[in-house]
Amino acid sequence: MRELHVAARRRSTFQIRFLGAVGATLFGGVVLMASTLPGVPGVSGRGLFLTLMGAAMAMALVSGTILTADSLSREKREGTLGLLFLTDLTGLDVVAGKYVALSLVPFQGFLSVFPVVAMSIFMGGVTPGEFWRVLLVVVTTIFLSLSVGMWVSSRVTEDREAVWGSLLWMTGLSVAPAFLSALASLAPGLGGWADVRVLGPVGVFERAQAGFYGTKPSTFWLGVAIQWGLAGFFLGRAAWRVKRDWRLVENARRKSPVRVARWTPRWWTRIVDARGARLRRMGNLAWLGWQGEWMRRVVWGTVAVTCLAGLTTFWVSATQQPFSAGARSMGVVSTGLWMMKVMLAAHTVHFLHETCRNGMMELLMLTPIPGAAMWRGHLAAVRGIFLWPFLALAVLQIGLGIGGRMAMGGDWPSFGILVVTGLVPAVLILLVHALDFVAVAYYSARWALHYDRPGKALFRTLLLVIALPGLFCSHGRFVVDLLVMARTAGDLDRFRELVRGWFVPRVGRAPTAPPRLA
């Protein structure tokens, strides 16, 4: 009950509800005004419905990563989780209390969007049944995401491991069923396995729409039951594990350095050592940011999965619907790029918080290194982790763009014109994505040194730099990126002052002198 009272009085609860209502109202107003312009055909409510519910679905998928991933692990690090078990509370009581309190924020944000989404029924193009089914799927996804984040938080102790673990689990639950369904559609004897998509929340979201639900309603309800079952399973596992492993225990199952070095190619070790030495010369913060081999492996793993999914989508679409092969496969690559932006924001926020918390930033503050040099070192470390994966996906995006034009066929004047028509759109899209990466790196670093909890800085970055510009501006969001970089570049030049401000609330003000006696 105390957790719920604290969450109800928190300022972020009111801010998210207000921002959600304002954003949905503005978007709905723009759609309505566009439908009244002369010469514009009537706009149905389906576009408004799918856009707002798609954005709500995306936020539901990452809500557990932002809100619950560090809830129990933070209690472990601070040593306060054991105090709860000195009372008559059980593991289920602790997990349920935090679960209900943390679910207040996403549910209030979703309810603020609900009236604007309901307008789509009166605008036409959306049936009441479809509206309530999609609404049920979004609510179910919120429960599932929060349960996964709570379960991962009960297993680990570090905030970065908790965030990345819950993010990877939700990504796997969303992407793996769709990928298996695409592979099953290739084999002629495995057509019945296409319904495996309902094992993930994205597949259930698709089945909730009128075009899919009318053909096989039982598949949708089976998918909803599976999602609720998974949510209950993860929540029950978290309640069982938090009572069992509430102590701060180091992970003894990590691989030894000798075993890792044995399976690492020598040429790759030389490249990593050379890059680490170059970053070490740029400053200690650059070298610290480059540490953590698991982060590089996660990013390159995302690149590998995106390449495999993009090429598979292109192959399947080229054989069945050649005109949409390029657009669909490039959409898969864009999804991988959006995931890497989320990874960049999470890595920046949690790295700076961890550096401040473990005392390394205090040691750097004692050196005469200027703040601008620290900031450039941090950017160099971020480039070292994310630049080459971005370039790998950029090459794939360009190749799929050209391949999509070739799959469409047609009578082109020359092969060079064919290449240019596929190359130019892909390059323009990549330029917008590159500006997104820079804006995310700037903005997440600025607010990571402002908030005392990494979840607040991460949520602000995802909402104001990734979600809202992508929803309202589409490819015109490069203007927002330029404004963000121009606004935060001056603040980050005062890097030392921002770091000092991060420590001030923790130290507190000096006690005032006692009054003098007359």
Textual characterization of the structure:
- The protein has helices at 2-9, 11-35, 45-67, 71-78, 81-84, 91-123, 128-155, 159-186, 201-207, 210-213, 217-244, 257-263, 266-282, 284-290, 293-320, 325-357, 360-365, 371-408, 415-448, 454-472, 478-492, 495-507.
- It is 80% helix and 0% strand.
- The longest helix is centred in the last third of the chain and has 38 residues, at 371-408.
- It is mostly helical.
Detail the poorly predicted runs. 249-264, 506-518
Summarize the biggest pleated sheet.
Answer: none
Structural class: mainly alpha
Radius of gyration: 25 Å
Average of per-residue pLDDT values: 77
Q: Strand fraction band?
A: under 5%
The total strand number stands at: 0
Distance between the amino and carboxyl termini = 49 Å
The number of helical elements comes to 22
State the helicity in percent bands. over 70%
What string gives the helices and strands in order?
Answer: HHHHHHHHHHHHHHHHHHHHHH
Approximate shape: globular
